[in-house]
Amino acid sequence: MDMLIFLLIFHMLGNINGKDSTDLSENVINLQQRCQQSGFMLRCNYLPKEIPENVTGVYIEDNYNDIECDRETFHSNTWTLVKNLEIKTTSLSLKIIPYLALHSKCFYSLVQLQELHLQSDNIYISETAFEGLDKLRLLDFTGCSRLSIVSLKTALWGRNKVPNLTTINLSQASTSMDPEYLQFDSELFHVLFQKPITKIDANTAQVSVFNFTEMFTVSTGLKYLNISDTIISNANINGLTSQNCKTKLTSVDLSYAKLPADFVYPGKIHLSYISISSDILGNGILTALLSTKILNISGIYTERNLLWIENVTFIILKPLIWTTEELIANEMNLGRLDFRVVSGNFSVQTLKKLALNNNLIDFVHPSFLAIFPNLKTVEVSGNKLHQMAKENRSDFETLLSPLHLLKEVHLSNNGLKEIPVTFFQNNINVETIDLSKNNLEQVNFDLKNLVHLRVLNLEGNNIVRLNENSLNNLNILIHQSDPKLHINLRSNPLSCSTCQDKASIKWFWRAIKTKITNQKLQCRNKDGQQEFIDVQILQNIQRICQRKVIILASSLTTGFFLLVILIISIIVYKKRKTMKKLKHRNTVLKNLRVGENMYEYVAFLGYSSDDERFVNANVLKQMNQTLQQITGINRDLVCTGDRCFHPGQMIHNEIASSLDRICTMVIMVTDSYCTSMYCRSEFDQALLHGKPIILMLCGKVNLDLMPLAMKQLYRRNARILWTEENGEYVLKTTWENVCLSILDLVK
Questions:
Q1: Does the pLDDT at position 445 exceed 90?
Q2: Burial level of 332, CB count in 10 A (0-12/13-18/19+)?
Q3: Which of 31, 182, 494, 559 has its CA 20 to 30 A from that of 448?
């Protein structure tokens, strides 16, 4: 039958070839008229005069013949229960364009009709076509490419026509009516707002004029506006202020609309090193849009536009009158968002969701998110936050810290190699974390506070095996989190080829059995093949580990004999080293007894004048006496600046002269010493003279104040430490050990 219909259409097209458009309308293809009922719904390929009595929904699609509706079309009582009617006459060929004609009071008998869907490339609407539709709530003209906006306004004019209409759909309408297109002018809004209109849908349309001022200032009932993917040539926003804006929309969808320059600056915007106040936002269209609950502005910036903000301060001087709960700005070509917000006590309390997916964002200043303290969903997937994590780690680490109510965070496809340990520390209410399609190798970030977490998405990362820290974090999470927790680990290059993978694979298998993770996880075996993780894989790894033990045991037998030889060698080496050390010490003692040149003093004690009382009471005398006891020399063996420097001489020369008379240098390291120019000069010259340096610390010292060389010594060499016990300072070792160590350093 389908082939017969196709041949009939093909024959008809051949017969009408060459006729003009007026002739085409006279051609009628007489296909078999059919209707099919399913429940309360009836589908037909023609417009029947009678329908089953229990039908409440009718769908008519005739793409070959014209449809004319007049007052007699639906006159039968069988149509009185219909609540939903859809008529479609879309053309299948440029040569056959059936029309849909709605004559005067054609729907008058449809007293129960609530939804009317009309789709035709060639539609005629009478001035009184919609009279009698007192219960109609939805009027849909989707795809009516030749819809005359003038005829529509005339057909809807008057409060007695569709008095209960709440939704009008003009998607893809009037797209072939150049230069008229759709005109959302003051006249159309005046007609529409005579009705209780709550929703206008005009997505994927051509709009020559859109009067935003009229829409926001006239209507009090409009809740939903959809002009996504729509081209708007001209827009009127003149005179729009927060004072005359009556409409409080629930949802505005401007996504991927091509807007005039009044809305979107046609070029790249690069702001840097400036301060901006909140007054710049004004009271116009932006304030009106930000009074909606859901605002979608995704894609209104094209690849030719770019917003780049660098080192900008945004100062909020007064409360921001925004009531937006969801702000969606995906694919906006947004670049760097480096602006510090100075908000004082002002914040936007209403915003619950912020979506910035698939932009070019490589930095977001933490203070930007901080002005939205009640955010529950943050989406920044598909950006370049790996640059922020690498170059501005501290800012990245605190990015989500102010968001205590956060429930969902989406950071997928950001090239992230690791997540800071404390990244989610303050987000104790989070339920979903999406880190998929990054470059994570481990789960080293802290999860212990996330007791409400239900979804942890790690799909598509670079996890080969989980280390001990990752396993501990995940086990803690499983132990304390929601019983319905799901950890997505698909598409990771998991390994099951070595004994090192045992703990990781064992955890995966346990997670699979308890349905915490995906049921069909795969890993790469020793042959490079992908296999599903199951008990057999675990047994294979166990055998690999057993072989390793056997090999290890064989190696130990051989190694034992080598170890015996090594121990003997070490004993001999240590004995020789001890002898050498004693010989060196005797040589040093001999030189010290002579006391010439660098052997005049064993050590130079460097300290800040702020620490003089502590040094005199606890260090100088004790060190000197202990050195005298060990060496048997009665003269002073510890030199200090106050004792050895000659008054009236240049300090620099005196330091150099003293360093020529000492063997080592002991420094009392405190914050005062590190910040003293003279003390640091002593340290620097000791380094230049190649003198061994020993650090002595009492209490805490700020490492950031130390010079680089001192910091390296601090981290590399053992130090002399003092501790405070019962209000007194106690040396953690003995003076004998300290002094012997000093003598061993003497060259």
A1: yes
A2: buried
A3: 494
Q: What is the pLDDT of residue 177?
A: 60
Q: How far, in whole angstroms, is CA 53 from its chain's centroid?
A: 56
The CATH number of whichever domain residue 180 belongs to comes to 3.80.10.10
What are the tens digits of pLDDT across the range 121-174? 889 999 999 999 999 999 999 988 888 889 999 999 998 899 999 999 999 987
Q: What six digits make up the tokens of 12? A: 């008809």
Q: Range of 733's domain?
A: 595-745
Cα 306 to Cα 361: distance, rounded to the nearest angstrom:
11
| Residue 104 resides in a domain | yes
CA distance 646 to 364: 59
The answer to whether position 536 is within a domain reads no
Angle at 155 between CA 151 and CA 161, to 5 degrees: 165
Sheet strand arrangement including 67-69:
67-69, 100-102, 123-125
Which residue, among 487, 425, 430, has the nearest Cα to 456 in the 3D structure? 487
**Domain end marker among 240, 268, 289:** 240
Residue 147 buriedness (CB in 10 A; 0-12 / 13-18 / 19+): buried
* pLDDT tens profile 65-93: 889 999 999 999 999 999 999 999 876 66
Q: What is the mean pLDDT of residues 665-687?
A: 89
Q: What does the pLDDT read at residue 280? A: 65
In a domain, 120, yes or no: yes
Look up the pTM and report it.
0.68
Q: Which of 223, 240, 257 is the last residue of a domain?
A: 240
Give the total number of structural domains in the chain. 2
Both tokens of 454, joined, read: 């239900």
Q: Answer yes or no: is 314 within a domain.
A: no
pLDDT score at 304: 65
pLDDT (0 to 100) of residue 94: 60
